[in-house]
Write the structure tokens for this entry.
Amino acid sequence: MKILVIGKSAREHAFVQKIAKSPLAKEIFCIPGNPAIAQFATCVNIALDDLNAIVEFAKEKEINLTIAMDEYSIQNGISNIFHQQGLKIFAPTMEAAQIATSRAFAKKFLYKQKIPTPKYGVFDKETSAIEYLQKATYPLIIKYDYLAHQDSFLCKNFVQAKKIIAEVFQEVQKKVIIEEFIEGEQITFSILTDGYNVLPLPYVREYKRNSDGNGGAITKGVGAYTPTSKITLEIETFIAQEIIFPLIDALKEIGTEYEGFLSTNLLLLPNGNVKAIEFLPTLSIPEATCIIQLIEDDLLDVIYAASEGALEDGYQNIYTSDDAIVSVGILSGNYPTNPKIESIVEGIENLDDDNLELYYNDVGMNSYYEISTNGGRAFFLTSRASTINKARENLYENIDFINFAGKNYRKDIAKFNISKEY
């Protein structure tokens, strides 16, 4: 088959590297890709928001299956356009993806379906939001409605919250979610679904805050590890029966079957309860760097079956290795704000260890064919071992081989005695 993958991050790097091993993949293209993805696929320089050009490319190359991994392409309706043109794509439609791309939609949907989630308010007027803040309990979380590069803010007092609200309403987005703050541990759980049948993927512990000890800004994720011992059989059963299955069934009942990857951000409370925080219409980047390399099935074959609505015929589960993975984001500048760009990266060739993978994320190649940073999360370095401790030790022994101006990273990923986070 001719395969087209949409995206350019470490997620797509891990994904393309995996499906390149499938005997079904005769030729792989990636739009736009990155320098590392180019080792496994033909990268095509088309902008992710130029959906018509992507469609025309798929037609011209007679692509058999397109897999959209980039969340913004999904949010913009790439699946809808492909379906309208009679082209096969594995990704949720714009309507189904609202559960992940619109927090206002998601919160109201969860509430209606009685799926546990933190208390919230949705506001489309700045004055109403500020009135709510005057009576609110702090700290609290303020979130944009739609996906953005930094879209969640932990506010400790009214003055800080009011400033964030003003900034949100000055931007294009004119809706804001104010959510209660709850202490707990964030776990990411993803599924692969054809809209009817669900295949679970490994649970991942993600780190959203950018500083050691879970301080600093809320980010899209700066590290992760799997497996996590926090998930008991009882918790796993609750998540399946009270969150995932009701969600997929409810979407199906309203005529918006969800086909694709769906990542669920869960909060494990100290009392053992679980709440759904939010969703992503694909795998998160830290999560993908952990779990994709653990998959032992032919992932491309699984996805093709899902795109045909035939998961039930061939797959009851996705088989994964029992190995542990630790993933650490190598950050540039003051991510998530003011990343240092165009820093030349050195030392990649020194990572000579079969148990390490360096996934390219916010990096490119300059006119001198040097790898340089172009965003806040330059790389994700992963280490694989039989235990979390061995993986963590090996990773941090090797991470300083990578060097560039403005480099930083959390030094406590998978260190278990750190404080809890939202």
Observations:
- Residues 68 and 374 are 22 Å apart (CA to CA).
- The radius of gyration is 21 Å.
- The mean pLDDT is 94.
